[in-house]
Amino acid sequence: MTPIQRWTPVEGQPQQVADPAAARAALRQLRPADYAHSRNHLGGAVTGLSPWLTHGVIDPPDVAAAAEAALGSPLPPGHALTLQLAWREYFLHVAEHRGAGLLQSLHEGPLPDALYASTVPDDVRAGRTGVPVIDQAVHQLHACGWLHNHARLWLASYLVHMRRVHWRAGADWLHALLLDGDLPSNHLSWQWVAGTGSHKPYVFNADNVARFAPRAWHSPGTVIDTSYEQLDAIARGQVALPQPYRAAQQAAVGSDAPVVSSAPPTELAALLQPPAAGAPEWAGQPVWLVHPWALGDVPDDLPPNTVVLAVLCEEFHRAWPWSAQRWQFVLPRMAALARSRGADAGVISGTSNTLLGLLKHAGPVMARQTWQPHYRELLEAGRVTTRPVPARCTSPDTVCASFSKFWSRQPGAERFSHRR
Ligand SMILES: Cc1cc2nc3c(=O)[nH]c(=O)nc-3n(C[C@H](O)[C@H](O)[C@H](O)COP(=O)(O)OP(=O)(O)OC[C@H]3O[C@@H](n4cnc5c(N)ncnc54)[C@H](O)[C@@H]3O)c2cc1C
What we know:
Blueprint: H1 20-28, H2 32-38, H3 50-54, H4 60-71, H5 80-98, H6 122-125, H7 132-144, H8 149-162, H9 167-177, H10 183-194, H11 206-212, H12 228-235, E1 260-261, E2 272-273, E3 287-290, E4 307-313, H13 314-319, E5 322-323, H14 324-341, E6 347-350, H15 352-359, E7 365-368, H16 375-381, E8 385-387, H17 403-408
Parallel strand pairs: 2-6, 3-4, 3-7, 4-6, 7-8
Antiparallel strand pairs: 1-5
Helix pairs in contact: 5-10, 7-8, 8-10, 9-10
This protein binds flavin-adenine dinucleotide.
Flavin-adenine dinucleotide binds near residues 180, 181 and 190.
């Protein structure tokens, strides 16, 4: 195991707060040369940077710069890290164009939506399916809120194709438990696995797990220990679903399943403050608006009298609750940013209407762009001047229906492959 897999409990305490110093320390540990040949292995030299990237503590250009410093040369466009960062930017590109449309199937998958169950079964939620790869993934998810990309692919594929659960139910469930839960990357990846955002269902078998995962994850003799032809036929409904688990292993949600909530846990409640009634003391001053996807440092080119307001938009959090671990990751950093230059000391939680009422008192309002539902609408309705998320790829004006199309429209990309 490499030290970079810090989100796993095996490596000690997971990071607690979206702290830029910790993110910068992680950037200094990048091993881009090893990443290229080992990233598909659960013990490979993956970066573990996704929680910081999701919350805007760092951005893809920072990762590329750190990789270049480690390599001592420019990061080639065809390097695996370049391509994986581009996948993130592709999903943001789709979100920019489709907005909340990414929450519905982009096109029909192998079977009609109505044939899939709308809830995640209890034995999966508890990590007690009897299929070691799935149970290991769920327990790691519970313990540290982070999974390797391959584990996410396996979990999603098993749920959608072996248990016939609708991708949206699985996506919402996983999103709630991840520290890096990000609707564009998460929900579009689920659609890619389901076949509603790609041209074929993604399936995997026990041999694939044995190749890329440690022994405890290997799953011989289980429902996934079969040929790809058979798995594809199951996903397409051409043969019956296998009996997924032994009755003795069915279970209610296990005790290690984190509680998810639309509001911060009580131990963080002191970091919240209600919106002030009437005109605040900073009325008329410029505002830098901090939201959960803007946890990097406050830009240093703002007018000197700019105040920092940190806000939570309640409609979003009611729709997509978070684990306590995620609240712990996000909220103290938001409060620290609010305190850095704020007239208000805490994080203001309110409905869109309440927050809009507050912003009416402000002078010019500026914020980092986001495509997260409700926050995006808040920025638009509040006539907030947004700053783009720093990116390495260009986002074409019309939506690209596939990563290949997106990639082919990047300068110089035609010379390189784009395998996932
Ligand atoms: C079902 C499923 C759900 C996912 N949900 C999320 C999510 O909610 N949030 C999220 O950030 N990523 C998600 N991903 C993408 C990917 O699994 C994670 O970004 C990655 O595993 C994070 O670990 P890392 O930082 O070590 O990645 P690395 O391999 O070190 O990659 C570096 C960075 O590149 C980006 N990246 C890498 N692989 C992908 C990918 N396949 N798609 C998009 N971006 C990628 C991430 O920002 C990542 O931090 C999901 C993938 C799947 C299959």
